[in-house]
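Mods, move this if it's the wrong board.
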Amino acid sequence: MIQFFTFCIPFLVFWPSSILALPVDPSTRGEFVQKKRGFELPIRRRVVRSGSSLKRGTYSGSTGLGDSLDLFYTVAVTIGETVTAVNVDTGSSDLWVVSSACTTSVCESTNMPPYPSANIKPAGGSVNLLYGDSSTGTHASGPVAQDTATVAGLAIPQQPFAAISDTNNTSVMQGANGIFGLGFPSGSQIQTATINAKFNNSLTTDDFVLGTASDGPFLSRLAMSGALEQPMFTVMLQRDAIDVSRNNGALTIGKLPDGIDNSSLTWVPVRLYKSEDGGLSPPTFAPNEIYPFRWEVPLDGIVLDGQRLHASKLTGSSPTLSALLDTGNSVIRGPRDVVDSVLKSVSSAFAANSNAAPTFPCKVPHTLAFQIGGKTFPVDPRDFMSQNKIGDVSTCVANNLVATDPPQSGALFSWSLGDPFFKSNLVAFYYGNLTHPSVDPPRIGFLSMVPDNANVLLQNDIAQAEANGGNFESESVLSPVITDLVNLVMTNGVRPSQARCRSHQ
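Not the wrong board. C-alpha cells:
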C-alpha cells in the first residue's frame, strides 16, 4: 500500500546577493558583545554592507538529530524538493546525497528518498570523496550539482552538492542518505570542482577564497552571509545505548543553544595549517594569512581514571599534541601506543593478549578525559564502554577507543574525538572570518555535560539491565523534520503560513 504524508518545512532563504565576505573590524577583537538572548560570546557581529535586503545578525536555527545505535548521527536536509537525512560530519567539508542514478548494493539498502537524477542542475565537474584512514575507508563519487538546500529552517539557493552515483559509504545503510560536511572550505573538494569549472581549471587561491561566499560549504556560506546571530554552530549528541537520553541531541546554527551561557564554555583556538603542512596557500590580497583546514585544537594532555598518561613515542610529522573534533567518527581514535596502554590498564584480558577483546567488569567505571584549554573534559563512563554479549551485563568491552594513523601532512592531529566525546560534551564551532582569519580567528568552545554522579548512574543502569534480561536499553531514532517547524516558529517568529508544505510519497 502506498501512503502519502504531508509536512511543512519552514525556511529562511539567504539569496546569493546577500552572501558576502565581510571582514570584522580589527579594533573589535577581544571584545565581549551582549547578545539579545542574554549570551555573551567572545566574538563580534559582522559589519553589514549597506543596501542589502537581508536582515543581518538575526537568524538562527536548531534541529534534533537522528541516531542509529550511537554510531551514526543524522540531520534532516531538504535539497530542492527532496527531504532526506544525512550524517552530521565535522571531520569533512562536503555535502552529498545519493541520487537515483546510484544502483550499488549500499544505495539500494537505504530507505531514504534519493535525489532525482533528472533534477540535477550541473555546477561543473565531479568528485570522488574518500573517508576513513589507512585501515578503513569508503568512497562516494558523482557529479557536482546545485539546488536550494535547507537545514534547521535555514536555506541557501544554488548550493553546490554532490549527487552521488556510486558509493560504499556505510552511513547510507544506517539511516542516512549522504553526508553533511561541516568543516572548513579549504577541505571542500566540491568547492574546488565548482570554481575550477568556472575558471576552466585554472583555479587560483584568490579565486577559491573569494568563491567561498557563492560556492562554499553550506554552513561556511551562512557564516559569511552576516545574517546569522553569530557565525557558528554547536553539536550535542544524545545517548541511545546503555542509558537512553531523551531529546537532548541537537545541531544549533547561529547561536549557542537556549539555556547555555557563554561564560560556562572554555574557548580554544583552532589550529591553522600552513601550505607546507597541507593547508591552503595564502591569496595575493592577504599574503600573510594562514587558514584553518580542520576543526582541530591543541591538547594539554590525556587522563585515565585521574592519572595523566605518558605522551606517545610514535613518530609523526607533528610534534604538537592536538585533536580533531569529528562527529563523523563513531569512536575515539589515538596513537597506538597510548591506546594500547589504556586498554591494558582497564582490561586484564587485553593485557595478557593484545589480540583479545579489551573486556572488563561493567561495574568498574573508567573515565577517559582530555585536557583542553586548562580544563578537563571527560568521557562519561557509559560512553567509554559497550555491552560485550547479549544477555550479559557483567562483562563490558572498551571498543570505543581504537588506534589510528600517526600525524601526517594535511592531518597533523594525533587524536580524533568522535561521538563518545560529543555525547559527553557540548561543542561549539565558531568560524570567525573566513577570508581574513587573523582578524577574527576560528575557535571551539567546550562544555562538559557529564553529571557528577555518572558512576552512580552507571550502577543504576546495570541494575535496570539485569532486571531486563541482562541487556542495556537501546534504541534508534530517525532525524526529526517537524522539529524544524517548531524551532523556527519559537526562535524567529515565523508563522506556520510562511512555511513551505510539500507532499511526499
